[in-house]
């Protein structure tokens, strides 16, 4: 079976799940795949904001599940890529508006039309997480190089295993090479000592992310910022290309001299 | 007579003997004696009863659940040779056999009501969290009883939030991560790095030991003696050659580097 449904989760909040979903989904679409990104965070909607599609929401996934619209009406087309869609979530409901079975059925519908369905899981390990996990063929766990987020990632990786959805793959987000070198931040090796699961991407800390999230344009759409390159590499690994994993390196003296970072 | 047994997915309390002359409340008092003697061993766990041929009424079952709850223990299954008892067990939403919990069932199946409850700790993570089912590539021989002895052998990494509880020995081939918990009635052996917490001799055996290739636990207990390592000890976790055994000496937990162990075990 082709792995179509990819759930992006983390346990801890604020580690970059939504940014990762937006960028990996967009990058897959730029590679010519037909992609839908699905906001799993019912009640705390924000994938639409990061994607810059907030003002186009008419219907959402809860409307579809409760029969108020057809699936096609809830999907929002993103014109920046050939075939990229957003399935938004409801802002006025909570996680219990949908259960895991319904989530599986929604994804089964989407599987017929799309190459990839990328689900942005809410933080936590409660029902929203179970909703996002239930339809997954593949699970990506996002962590920051920091102790509490690694601890939560470990918990989530264990839960993914016990739901027979493993092994989860790891995205290390917001790594700052200079701080790792000064031993102020966990290194990739420190993280692997605890989690020991395959890394599918290492995304360096990048100022471009903040401004792109505020503008509603995922970084992969424009430019060569370090994070954009890392997200495009993750997308290429997901479609099966062999892209070697490179560790972000501290800026050399001449890069610092000419004001380039990363 | 009551026996505590461990199996791959948790604990089973076996009620041996003919019950016709021992009323159920008396047997529950016997169980309560066990629970109150070693509350830490049971606390937070999920257990099953094996009541053999003893018929239980619905009230008997409810009293059992309530007793366990007062010790923060969840009753998830009752095995019985009596069909009427099994029916009452199922009617209360408990399992009537020790099927290894597979992929945890969808926590809230087929409910569309607004008031759909969140999955609670007990419904979504019953024995599955205690010891997650094996990944398909691990054969049963790699995890389960060590044949002919009383122990649980686990051949994988134990991750944060996972609990291994067994009345005998617990042996882990793999690392025990921060946030993971091992609770053994007897010894604990970790062929790997112990960074979670470990409680050996949790049924009162103060001769129990904890061994690890790398000892950097969050805290350890042996019987009722607790040791919380100083931060300096935790920072030195990457130091090589830290194969260590912990045991009780003069009411304190002492750590012995490998080499001195055989002397101390005498």
UniProtKB/TrEMBL annotation, chain A:
GO terms for biological process: division septum assembly; negative regulation of cell division. One of its GO terms (cellular component) is cytoplasmic side of plasma membrane. Residues 6-219 form the CobQ/CobB/MinD/ParA nucleotide binding domain. CDD domains: MinD (cd02036). The keyword Cell membrane does not apply. GO terms for molecular function: ATP binding; ATP hydrolysis activity. ATP binds at residues 12-19. Keywords: ATP-binding, Cell cycle, Cell division, Nucleotide-binding, Septation. The keyword Oxidoreductase does not apply. It comes from the Bacteria. Signal peptide: none annotated. Belongs to the ParA family. MinD subfamily. ATPase required for the correct placement of the division site. Cell division inhibitors MinC and MinD act in concert to form an inhibitor capable of blocking formation of the polar Z ring septums. Rapidly oscillates between the poles of the cell to destabilize FtsZ filaments that have formed before they mature into polar Z rings. This is Septum site-determining protein MinD. It comes from Candidatus Thermofonsia Clade 3 bacterium. The lineage of its organism: Bacteria, Bacillati, Chloroflexota, Candidatus Thermofontia, Candidatus Thermofonsia Clade 3.
TrEMBL record, chain B:
Residues 154-254 form the Septum formation inhibitor MinC C-terminal domain. Interacts with MinD and FtsZ. It comes from the Bacteria. Cell division inhibitor that blocks the formation of polar Z ring septums. Rapidly oscillates between the poles of the cell to destabilize FtsZ filaments that have formed before they mature into polar Z rings. Prevents FtsZ polymerization. The gene is minC. Residues 117-129 have a biased composition (Low complexity). InterPro entries: CAP/MinC_C, MinC, MinC_C_sf, MinC_N, Septum_form_inhib_MinC_C. It comes from Candidatus Thermofonsia Clade 3 bacterium. This is Probable septum site-determining protein MinC. The keyword Cell division applies. Residues 3-74 form the Septum formation inhibitor MinC N-terminal domain. Belongs to the MinC family. GO terms for biological process: cell morphogenesis; division septum assembly; regulation of cell division; regulation of cell septum assembly. It holds the Pfam family MinC_C. Keywords: Cell cycle, Cell division, Septation. Residues 96-138 are annotated as: Disordered.
